[in-house]
């Protein structure tokens, strides 16, 4: 059965989408079949994977015959249609045969209020019993159809019911960060929010009305894999500048002192020896990397991760090209190491 990994931080601008694309590609390059699920109504992951440049590019995907996006996939549950859910027809990821995209849809946001009501009142309203388990059911159906090993869920920056559901029905989660004041604040906030979500999920799992639903609420407790810290500038010594290093240190301290104890109390951590086995002292990030700078625009243009761009796609020559290729090799090594850590953590979970 595919393992579901949520990429979540309610702070925006922390490269969740970029991380999902690059990390998913790296896992796929290591022989794992990966489905990238776009659960952000802004649909940035869909646009990145498919190389869209405008909103009009989405129409051919949505108008194609069959169930081709997350909103249509969930419609049987949320719109009380007398048909069963079916797997979403995923999009192939160019040049990566082991990766697929489950496209997003702005209309997913329309289901937020209904899901919120269902999650608050599902113990008493039979008509809503199928909603809390529907997202996980759809992902599982689709993963089975494609023989996927991993489902990577790109989430919006919010604390709404959909994200609550996505988090608490995942097997694992990663928290992307940027080294700044607001990421430190977000870490403190997560230490407060996630235990509340965990308490809700524990209650939901105990309700027979949800266990016996057509789309049962899964019995899962998501485990924290770690953080990914990105988007800082380097100084000449190829280390973070003093200003960025200050925030990196504060994030690590906040994760260690506040987030990890909160997660441990709610059973959302792996055994400490699991992190030690992969060289991750408590609080240290799975991956720490600098800003992609101009590579991110080229990555989106060519529908390729930052470490797979060709010389022709880089459109550079001479020493500039060599410096860029050196950066790309470093990004490849970091993502490869991060993917290996995740694979080992998941294997021994």
UniProtKB/TrEMBL annotation:
InterPro entries: AAA_dom, DNA_Partitioning_ATPase, P-loop_NTPase
Family matches, as SUPFAM superfamilies: P-loop containing nucleoside triphosphate hydrolases (SSF52540)
Pfam families assigned: AAA_31
All copies of domain AAA, residue ranges: 3-192
Identification of the protein by name: AAA family ATPase
Gene source species: Caldilineaceae bacterium SB0661_bin_32
């Amino acid at each position: 059965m595919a393992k579901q990994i949520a990429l979540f931080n309610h702070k925006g601008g922390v490269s969740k989408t970029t991380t999902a694309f690059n990390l998913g590609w790296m896992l796929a390059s290591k022989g794992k079949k990966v489905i990238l699920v776009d659960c952000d109504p802004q649909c940035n992951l869909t646009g990145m994977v498919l190389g869209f440049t405008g909103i009009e590019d989405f129409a051919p995907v949505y108008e194609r015959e069959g169930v081709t996006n997350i909103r249509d996939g969930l419609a049987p549950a949320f719109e009380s249609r007398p048909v069963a859910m079916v797997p979403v027809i995923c999009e192939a990821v160019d040049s990566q045969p082991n990766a697929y995209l489950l496209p997003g849809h702005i209309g997913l946001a329309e289901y937020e209020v209904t899901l919120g009501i269902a999650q608050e009142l599902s113990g008493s309203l039979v008509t809503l019993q199928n909603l809390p388990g529907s997202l996980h059911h759809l992902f599982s159906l689709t993963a089975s159809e494609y023989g996927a090993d991993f489902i990577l869920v790109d989430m919006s920056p919010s604390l709404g019911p959909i994200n609550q559901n996505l988090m608490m029905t995942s097997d694992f989660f990663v928290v992307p960060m940027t080294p700044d004041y607001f990421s430190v604040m977000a870490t403190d906030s997560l230490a407060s929010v996630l235990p509340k979500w965990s308490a809700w999920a524990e209650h939901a799992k105990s309700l027979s009305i949800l266990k016996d639903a057509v789309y049962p609420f899964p019995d899962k407790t998501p485990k924290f894999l770690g953080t990914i810290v990105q988007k800082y500038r380097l100084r000449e010594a190829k280390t973070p500048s003093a200003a960025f290093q200050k925030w990196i240190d504060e994030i690590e301290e906040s994760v260690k002192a506040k987030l990890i104890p909160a997660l441990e109390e709610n059973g959302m951590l792996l055994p400490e020896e699991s992190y030690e086995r992969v060289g991750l002292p408590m609080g240290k990030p799975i991956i720490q990397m600098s800003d992609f700078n101009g590579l991110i625009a080229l990555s989106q243009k060519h529908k390729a991760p930052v470490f797979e761009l060709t010389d022709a796609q880089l459109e550079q020559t001479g020493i500039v090209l060599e410096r860029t290729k050196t950066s790309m090799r470093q990004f490849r090594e970091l993502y490869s190491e991060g993917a290996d850590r995740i694979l080992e953590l998941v294997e021994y979970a």
